[in-house]
Amino acid sequence: MQHRTLVRQKSVAHDILAQIGSTPLLDLSAFARAQGVAPAVEIFAKAEWFNPGGSVKARAALQMVVEAEAAGLLRPGQTIIDSSSGNTGIALALIGAARGYPVELVMPANVSQERKALVRAYGATLIESDPLEGSDGAILLVREIVAADPRRYCYMNQYNNPANWRAHYLSTGPEIWRQTGGAVTHFVAGLGTTGTFMGVGRYLKRRNPDIELVAVQPEDELAVIEGLKHLESAIVPGIYDPALPDRFIDLAADAAWQTTRDLARQAGLFVGVSAGAAVAAAIELAHTLRAGTIVTVLPDDGSKYVSLGIFA
User: In a 10 Å sphere around its CB, with 0-12 CB exposed, 13-18 middle and 19+ buried, how is residue 171 labelled?
Assistant: First the structure.
């Protein structure tokens, strides 16, 4: 019997976590043209669902875990814990499984069934907080849990952990700069934990101070856009620097939902609601420009939102 030996090429991946980052930059200019955007304005978007775990949050989650290990804050036998509305929790559950840490996640009880199923699939323990209190209620509950048994937990504290924004300063920002050949003129991103905006924004401003940073948030506290915060009426993340945005776009929830549907049906891009919000804001910005290169971030795909009825 002849035995065959597997020849391991350099492209063989030995660690799923090594696949985080280096996501594609998609050209959305044709979609924007159909919305009446001027021909000299280009819109590009980072397809972050290509990350393991399916979202941009894999970058921040890995950076937080790696820095906690390096600082001796996360040790074998400890449990990783954090509050999350979905994507960071899924990413932490994946990383915990890959690195051998138990994970507990506090999520509002009304997050989609898909997100609950995914964190459990990776073996994490899900703790549900009051759905009426949203992400702020989850933050308050996780603080109570950690305070009751601090030795057991390593609290990632994504809203106040500078490793969150550093992940994007070290990876997402440089990728955008390289992929556009330094031609980016505007960066548009939603505000949730604010880590993506802070990290990418700081990197791009270092490379070119003339790049305009545009922050997107719901138009008021009643406008619910998955993954985004209305900062004026919410617990403001400690990593947020209000001096960094050059301008804000306050977006109606209906606009985010409609653009999410349009991207699926007109561009073949099955994305989440915060991605739809980012593109809606980028197009709104584009209508004010005669020329420019706008880059935004599509945080995840639409698979976690089907049960919400958005695509029905």
Answer: buried
Query: Which is nearest to 305 in space by CA: 164, 122, 118, 46?
Result: 118
List of domains in the chain = 16-54+171-308 (3.40.50.1100), 57-155 (3.40.50.1100)
User: Annotated active-site positions, please?
Assistant: 57, 274
**Taking the complete model, does pTM exceed 0.90, yes or no?**
yes
pLDDT of 1 over the 50 cut: no
Interval 249-279: pLDDT, tens:
999 999 999 999 999 999 999 999 999 999 9
pLDDT, tens only, 47-103: 999 999 999 999 999 999 999 999 999 999 999 999 998 899 999 999 999 999 999
- Residue 13 confidence (pLDDT): 60
Report the chain's mean pLDDT, rounded to a whole number: 93
The conformational region for residue 44 under phi > 0 = left, psi -120 to 50 = alpha, else beta, is beta
Q: What is the pLDDT of residue 202?
A: 98
